Structure prediction request, 730 residues.
Amino acid sequence: MNRKKKKICLILILLLHLFCSLLLLIPDFPIGGDNDELFLLGRSISQKHKYQDIYYPSSPPHTKQPFFYPLILALGQFLFGENIILLRLISVLFGTGSLILVYLLFKKKISFLSLLLLLFFTATNPFFLIFSTSFASEMPYLFFSLLFFIILEKYENQKRFLLIAGFLLVIIFFTRCIGASLMVATFFYFITEKKYRQAFLLMCLCSFLILPWEIRSGFLFREAITKPYIDEFIIYLSGLNVLLFGKMIIGHIVYYFGQIVVLFIPGYFIGLEEFSFVNEKCFPSLHSLINNMGIFYVGRAYRFFYFLSSIILSITVIIGLFSQIKKKDKRLLFFYIFSYSAILLIHNGESRYLFPLLPFILYFIIKGVSFFVVKRYCYLKQVAIVLIILFHFYYNLIPIAEMIYNNVVYLKNYKHFSIKMRGNYHEYWHNSYFRAAPWIEQNTSPNAVVISDWAPAFYLYSHRQGVFLENAPCWPNYRSWEEIKLTFESGIADYFVVSTEEERKLLKKLNKECQNLIFNPLAIMFEPEIFFTDQVVRIYKLVQVSSLTKSFFEKGLYNMGEDNYVEAIPEFEKVINMVPGFFGVYYQMGVCFEKKGLLKQACVMYRKAVDLQPNYEIAKSRLAILQKEELIRTGLNDVNGYLLLGNLYLNNHNFSKAINLFKNALKLNPTLSICYYNLGIAYAYQGNYGLAILHFKKAMRIDSSLEYKAREQIRVNHRRRIIRQCGEED
Prediction:
């Protein structure tokens, strides 16, 4: 292949990456994976707030994330404002630059055809594309790391290299703290090359530039809210003895080997959800091993094909690694890989933590396949490469095409908090949880403070400062129970947004131990479009009362739980006498009257609750249901009445009544597409997936505007039906 054709091939791969990346850009704020935190740090710098957590009420100094990448984002925000599309182009440029650097780094190490394969796999890897369009620091970190390796190879024996290398190492560290692994690798590289002077000078230069930042973080530790990553490591490791540490290392080794296949072919991992082969009772050892590898269960079964692929791919990577380990020109790469891996072994993370190793893993896969077969069996190598390409095409390129298609559809009908699909990659949790954000913005004062699971992102969408719960129930090592309890009792926050089951358990514990605090439910954010996660988000108003008032309130709730509504009402009346403006008591009394069949008294109580708290959505909903039922009972029923009442029951999880009302509406108007769609949602929640799919298809035929949502619901419910069948077979 001549030089001109080679250039054309390289340009086509770059254009393919650019084309896919540009079509995957979305105008929404970033959520999760440090995206939102980095974006807000950039905003803090660009708005001259220094380097602060501006989402927190007191805007304390930030000590967790290093500052270099937020500084780049701040420059982008200064130039483009907060145009999300233009700001995301920064990551796209880093991604394109990383592809160019991959070519420059490996062009003399493998044949051109293998290099094209390496570039193609990298450019069309879903993780690579996702990080090319996000605000996460993975892509800049990969770019600067590759740049460092190239400069090392070119200028290693020149004096000016030390200065350039030192500054690059510092930039890498200030992009991601795990960049310290590259410093360690470089130090040992110079030691093995017997370049002691260079090693000493390089470490002195890096220490001189990094120590001021670490000293600053140390001084601000008590004032800061977010802890530096090094402190998280220390807290994480402090509770381990030698035996537990050994078990942890072995578990992480197995886990990350299993994650190699997730990194290489993410779509393959997702696509195997529907396979069920390994049963816990029949294969306990295999079940335990697969569980340690981070493979999530579906019912009682596991994805055996994924397990087998992980073993094969991991062995291929190891063989490729050791087949090249004696090559002198690659020695620093090996030091980097081993030092980076050593840090990962004490940090149980996700497949995305392997992302900076993606080009190297792909390189060693190609080398491993080559090593498997001697020259006389060259056809086997070709067969293996073809199989890998076919896997990549089916499990990565097709999902990428689906991601692009759905993203274009989403952009055409762009609305905040609508479903954002990425082929097999979903944002269900994000959409459902942050559905509470516009409600908070519309129904609370600008000075309101919200406790949420992900305060930075919640601040972006609600414009309300908040307290970051830091997944406290999931990661108890990061915050003690006393710290969590103090956060609620301090009175700093006005509202609490809760969704996951673990946080509901936390809520029960808080409600029991916080003697002067009542969690009063204001609103329920039920998202019928997001069926896959069964996600319901609740918004609580934090009400500070005396311990005596709380005891009366809890007695009333206890009697309600025992269906003793007559005894519950006097307890609530005592609370009203002590705190006349406590709106939540009127709501509970309304529920008691409604359960007793005294609907007029119930309406009076609900109306009083709404008068005291105009944004009391739960009380409004109950009042609307009673009023609409009264209209239907008096004969003033119509299609809109049935539809409205059906939606109210659907949002309150009363699916049987909702189904009956939607059917009544369809009797009056058989072409009402939204009724068919809502019937599908109700049947899906009842577990009747066949009827759900049938009604989604009817809705789609009548109204083409529902096609996008209906098709996704059909796909999700079809998968749920398969999973149920597999579970029954097991």
Q: What stands out?
A: The first strand starts at residue 278 and ends at 279.
